[in-house]
Amino acid sequence: MASSGDPEYKSSSTPVPGSGTGTGSGGVDYFKFDLILRFLLFAASLVAVVVMVTGNQTEYIPLPRPAKFRYSPAFVYFVAAFSVSGLYGIITTLASLSAIRKPNLKTKLLLQFIFWDALILGITASAAGTAGGVAYLGLKGNNHVDWHKICNIYDKFCRHIGSSVAVGVFGSIVLVLLIWISAHSIHSRVPK
Amino acid sequence: MASSGDPEYKSSSTPVPGSGTGTGSGGVDYFKFDLILRFLLFAASLVAVVVMVTGNQTEYIPLPRPAKFRYSPAFVYFVAAFSVSGLYGIITTLASLSAIRKPNLKTKLLLQFIFWDALILGITASAAGTAGGVAYLGLKGNNHVDWHKICNIYDKFCRHIGSSVAVGVFGSIVLVLLIWISAHSIHSRVPK
Question: How many domains would you assign to chain A?
């Protein structure tokens, strides 16, 4: 019941006969995969936040001018969003773990997961976009409005920002996958 | 069957007995609400794109300097993303309409909707974030890196950008709601 299930789609359309009553189980689920993905979400969020926060760099051009994530509202939003998603990741990892032990909670939990995953996805994707948009300006600048690029000077800072945004995009993709497997698991429990 | 259903959650946990076989129907669904939301997604995407694209403004300071959305990669990404989501909105509005007429397609369609909604949500939320981050820089500038604000000069341009991003955020929220009602509808078909 807690198996990783048959990845082939067709198998899910033949639920165990007679399992339609009781705990609402039957049908495939991917809770072990779910567990791994949720832990990945937590890890990705943690890495994104740590890499972003540790990117401080001071350049002497000619006066000392530091670059810090908190100088940009976009990066502050990014850190806040991925702190939330990291916390969410670790909490739902535990929830997923408990569901593997108590299978009769699973269907209800899957619905809760989709609800929250969709909300967190909206937050993380927009945060990755916001930080990515500003990071791209740092990398390329914009001649039309005289915003000069800064990544030729603040190289370490920009490497941190870029890596952090990449990990953030990865975290958002993990959330999309989580929604997909939860939806598929619930769908497999609907009698045909 | 195509009714808007009882909005109270508890009612969904008592599906019609004996409906567990056959077409997979039974349980609540919100296809009329779904239809309206999908049309709203289309309308919001259309408005976001049109408002963004029509924001061109030329200021003479002292030479003529135009501001156009295509000067910023962030705004180009925004227009591309919301063109896709507008197209997706109108296609799924038609799919939702056909599901109201042919109820036996519904459960499968709900799963497809969640899959695609999650993907499009990732795209639109990140696009709204990207454009929003750059628009905020235009509004406030960033003294730390000498990026001066431009919205005191390009007022009409910035009004268009700001409105467009706001409508884009609204469209992303509609997508979250769509995932929620689809997930809830599928869940209500799982026998308890």
Answer: 1
Whether residue B16 is contained in a domain is answered as no
- Does A66 score more than 90 pLDDT? no
End-to-end alpha carbon distance in chain A: 20
The verdict on residue A114 lying in a domain is yes
Q: Determine whether the interchain pair A67/B191 forms a contact, defined as Cβ–Cβ distance below 8 Å.
A: no
Enclosing H/E stretch for B59: strand B57-60
Looking at the domain assignment, is residue B52 inside a domain?
yes
Backbone angles phi, psi at B59, to 5 degrees: -120, 150
- What single letter denotes the amino acid at residue B48? A
Rg of chain B over all Cα atoms, to the nearest angstrom: 21
pLDDT, position A8: 37
CB contact under 8 A, A24 and B67: no
Which chain B residues are within 8 Å of A144, Cβ to Cβ?
Answer: 65, 67, 71-72
Is the reported ipTM for this assembly greater than 0.85? Answer: no
Domain that holds residue A122: 33-188
Q: Do B186 and A187 touch (CB under 8 A)?
A: yes
Q: What is the rounded distance in angstroms from the CA atom of residue B31 to the CA atom of residue B155?
A: 41
